[in-house]
């Protein structure tokens, strides 16, 4: 018998992607999927792509999850902490929400509602030292989707001292699944199709997380809603501290990272290439006019930006190779 895992909040987009990945995982046994408003319904009624899975949603609560060895929390922000506190200490937990990502209570208060729930081990294994930290942890806070996309592009440059930490500008476009599954008028197909629209300009909740993970001290971040279901493309620019080839820095940082791919020179990332994968694609150059460093980063917001990254962390937490049950290759066309 394999490692018993359960998913709380399994009716959402990230929850559905988690179920898909776990159903094909060779070492995890999916024993429970909970969903507040869909309790009693078969999983396939909400996620038709999972027809044949044979699971029924149960009500979200500690009783439905306590028999698992590891629990994934795919709940709305602010909902994970209370449930996690009711789980036995013997149960390992990966939280896909924001509740336990930030170390600074003041940063939490500035961008989120409710009290700060404390800080767990940050679940982005590609950061220096984090692979070992995640493997040793019982509670892990997976990175946010925008944060993962930007951090993987920016953190090595700041760590190497080649990019000024106080002068970073990011523009990132995300598919509509990043906004969750709750019905919202501005996410209707007729509102989104043929349109690009910025939102939460200068005040997105992933700003403090990106700063914490990368060491940036000055960050201007503009998110853009794109007319596609999934995927993120981020353009990250930073002022250099001296002459540098950013590709060399990224290549050295990710030489042993199975899911981060620095593309060949001249080939630029695009979201479709990462669809369904746990990969992040990077490319970098130096702006001919301003001399600024430019890194473009693409990933699947439901894959490496959420469910795939959570499974990667769970693999490490349970002593498995981090690549188990995950693919670095996308689905095309």
From TrEMBL:
It comes from Micromonospora zhanjiangensis. Gene3D superfamilies: Dihydrodipicolinate Reductase, domain 2, NAD(P)-binding Rossmann-like Domain. Its EC number is 1.2.1.38. It catalyses: N-acetyl-L-glutamate 5-semialdehyde + phosphate + NADP(+) = N-acetyl-L-glutamyl 5-phosphate + NADPH + H(+). Residues 4-135 form the Semialdehyde dehydrogenase NAD-binding domain. PANTHER family: N-ACETYL-GAMMA-GLUTAMYL-PHOSPHATE REDUCTASE, CHLOROPLASTIC-RELATED, N-ACETYL-GAMMA-GLUTAMYL-PHOSPHATE REDUCTASE, CHLOROPLASTIC-RELATED-RELATED. Pathway: Amino-acid biosynthesis; L-arginine biosynthesis; N(2)-acetyl-L-ornithine from L-glutamate: step 3/4. Catalyzes the NADPH-dependent reduction of N-acetyl-5-glutamyl phosphate to yield N-acetyl-L-glutamate 5-semialdehyde. It is an enzyme of class 1 (oxidoreductase). This is N-acetyl-gamma-glutamyl-phosphate reductase. It is found in: Cytoplasm. The active site is at 145. HAMAP family: ArgC_type1 (MF_00150). Its main location: cytoplasm. One of its GO terms (molecular function) is N-acetyl-gamma-glutamyl-phosphate reductase activity. InterPro entries: AGPR, AGPR_dimerisation_dom, AGPR_type-1, NAD(P)-bd_dom_sf, Semialdehyde_DH_NAD-bd. Signal peptide: none annotated.
């Amino acid at each position: 018998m394999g490692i018993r895992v359960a998913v709380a909040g399994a009716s959402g987009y990230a929850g559905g992607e988690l179920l898909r990945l776990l159903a094909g995982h060779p070492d995890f046994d999916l024993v429970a999927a909970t969903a507040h408003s869909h309790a009693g319904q078969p999983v396939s009624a909400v996620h038709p792509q999972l027809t044949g899975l044979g699971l029924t949603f149960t009500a979200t609560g500690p009783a439905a999850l306590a028999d698992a060895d590891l629990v994934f929390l795919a709940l709305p922000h602010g909902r994970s902490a209370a449930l996690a506190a009711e789980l036995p200490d013997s149960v390992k937990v990966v939280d896909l929400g924001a509740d336990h990502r930030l170390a600074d209570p003041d940063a939490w208060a500035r961008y989120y509602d409710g009290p700060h729930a404390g800080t767990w081990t940050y679940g982005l294994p590609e950061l220096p030292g984090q692979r070992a930290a995640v493997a040793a942890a019982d509670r892990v806070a997976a990175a946010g989707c925008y944060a993962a996309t930007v951090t993987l592009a920016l953190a090595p440059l700041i760590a190497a001292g080649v990019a000024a930490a106080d002068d970073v500008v990011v523009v990132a476009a995300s598919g509509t699944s990043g906004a969750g599954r709750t019905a919202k008028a501005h996410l209707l197909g007729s509102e989104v199709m043929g349109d690009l629209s910025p939102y939460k300009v200068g005040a997105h909740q992933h700003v403090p997380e990106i700063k914490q993970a990368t060491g940036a001290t000055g960050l201007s971040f503009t998110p853009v809603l794109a007319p596609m279901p999934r995927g993120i493309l981020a353009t990250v620019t930073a002022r250099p501290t001296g002459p540098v080839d950013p590709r060399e820095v990224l290549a050295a940082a990710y030489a042993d990272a199975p899911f981060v791919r620095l593309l060949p020179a001249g080939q630029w990332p695009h979201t479709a290439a990462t669809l369904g994968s746990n990969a992040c694609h990077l490319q970098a150059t130096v702006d001919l006019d301003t001399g600024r460093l430019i890194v473009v980063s693409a990933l699947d917001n439901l894959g490496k930006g959420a469910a795939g990254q959570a499974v990667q962390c769970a693999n490490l937490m349970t002593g498995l190779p981090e690549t188990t049950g995950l693919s670095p290759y996308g689905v095309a066309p």
